[in-house]
Amino acid sequence: MSNQEDPEKALETMDEDSGEAGNVTAQLMRNPQVLAALQGRLDGMVGSPSGYIESLPKVVKRRIKALKNLQLKATNIEAAFYEEVHALECKYHKLYVPLYEQRNTIIGGDYEPTDAECEFTLDDEISQEMEDKAKIGDGDAKLHDMDENTKGIPEFWLTVCKNVDLLSEMIQEHDEPILKHLRDIKVNFAESPMGFTLEFHFSPNEHFTNTVLTKEYFMKCKPDEREPFTFEGPEIYKCKGCTIDWQKGKNITLKTIKKKQKHKSRGSTRTITKTVQNDSFFNFFSPPAVPDDPDADVDEEVQAQLTADFEIGHYIRERIVPRAVLYFTGEALEEDDYDDEEEEEEDGEEGSDDDMDDEEDPDFDPKKVKGPKGKGGDPQECKQQ
User: Fold this and answer.
1) ω into residue 193 within 30 of 0, thus cis?
2) Is 291 left (phi over 0), alpha (psi -120 to 50) or beta?
């Protein structure tokens, strides 16, 4: 679709041809004009006051205020509920920690599991498909320059990060040699004030002297005093990175560019050098600053960066750290897509001939019709600003 096309017509075409392969939809959804038109349509679905409330007599409006007072009490109870949920999460996280530590010893090669620990048994009720997923073949050791003396699981966390779209989009080629030194990702929960810290542990390397890089996320779980009914649960409102102590000449988050300048009157030229920010995974540890004043205006671009940052931090905490091995093998990614496939099959049962035609097409790739990876669906996930 060209940029000159009417985005509303494009949306209408999407509505009419909803049975076509999802790769077409994916292309359309990457077009900013289509996204803007879709957002406008979604905003229109919210609705607006019908005018009925304004026409009611005072005695009825008085009762409505009583209902809103009840709603406010319910909102405060909801906030207390989420605070207890967070406290419970903190409590159970302590039970997970020994398992994560044991996982780390195996990954790092500090502990060799016994034969019994390596025997992965499944209940008879689990499908053959899941059993096949769980089996790990002998593989080609020569391909990765490994042998029987290889310790642990090399490049475990780098592979995890590259398998998750949210993180792989951040990783540049010059990041990978450093991320090969990533030994562990840990989460530390804070109960009061509410929040959590991500810890990225590195083995000694030639790029920086830090052994741990941290990212701290601050959360709030209280309804806004002026707009209490906007409350939807715990909310990340700020994050704080850390200083990376780069070795001289090894800071990959910066690059030097040369620029020619021409003198207006003399016509002579000179070359100047300028240091600018370079795309890198490690920019994750230098998030934009958030004003302490909650009423202060935040630039739209900065707000977009913060929103993406909050989503990434929450996903690492909620999904990647607890299920790291399943992201390493790719099983978690397949499971994320499984619900989408079920929905497509249900649509097909309603008589969509287009879906059947796609499945019969030898060039049909079902991966192209899946939704984006890396989107959590937990009912108690915190809201990103």
Assistant:
1) yes
2) beta
Q: How confident is the model at residue 382, as a pLDDT?
A: 43
Task: Indicate the DSSP class of residue 208.
Answer: B
CA distances from residue 186 to 108, 189, 308, 364 in whole angstroms, order as listed = 14, 10, 20, 40
* 275 or 372, higher pLDDT: 275
Write the pLDDT tens digit of every residue in 90-109: 999 999 999 999 999 999 99
Q: Mean pLDDT across the stretch 250-268?
A: 82
CA-to-CA dists, residue 245 to 156, 206, 281, angstroms: 24, 11, 15
**Pure H helices in the chain:** 7-16, 22-29, 32-46, 58-107, 115-118, 128-134, 156-163, 165-168, 176-179, 300-315, 324-329, 331-349, 353-360
Q: Which of 33-37, 266-270, 379-383 has the lowest mean pLDDT?
A: 379-383
Distance separating alpha carbons of residues 21 and 27, to the nearest angstrom: 11
Q: Is 294 exposed, middle or buried (0-12, 13-18, 19+ CB in 10 A)?
A: exposed
Q: 208 with 250: CB under 8 angstroms?
A: yes
Q: What predicted TM-score, i.e. pTM, was given to this entire model? A: 0.68
Residues 256/230, Cβ–Cβ less than 8 Å: no
> What separation in angstroms does the CA of 130 have from each of 123, 135, 335, 338?
11, 9, 10, 12
Q: Are 314 and 376 in contact (CB under 8 A)?
A: yes
The per-residue pLDDT for range 203-230, each reduced to its tens digit, is 999 999 999 999 999 988 888 888 888 8
Place of tokens 């990225």: 200
Q: Taking Cα atoms as reference points, which of 47, 29, 79 lies closest to residue 383?
A: 79
Of the candidates 183, 242, 190, the one whose C-alpha atom is nearest the C-alpha of residue 213 is 242
> What's the farthest any 2 CA atoms get from each other in the chain?
85
- Angle between helix 32-46 and 7-16 (nearest 10): 70
β-strands 235-240, 383-384: how paired?
Answer: parallel
User: Cα–Cα distance between 220 and 234 in angstroms, integer?
Assistant: 6
Render pLDDT for 286-340 as a digit per residue (tens, 0 to 9).
998 877 765 667 778 888 888 899 999 999 999 999 999 999 988 888 655 544 4
Could you tell me the CA-to-CA distances from 331 to 45, 129, 174, 321, 326 in Å, in that order?
37, 11, 27, 15, 5
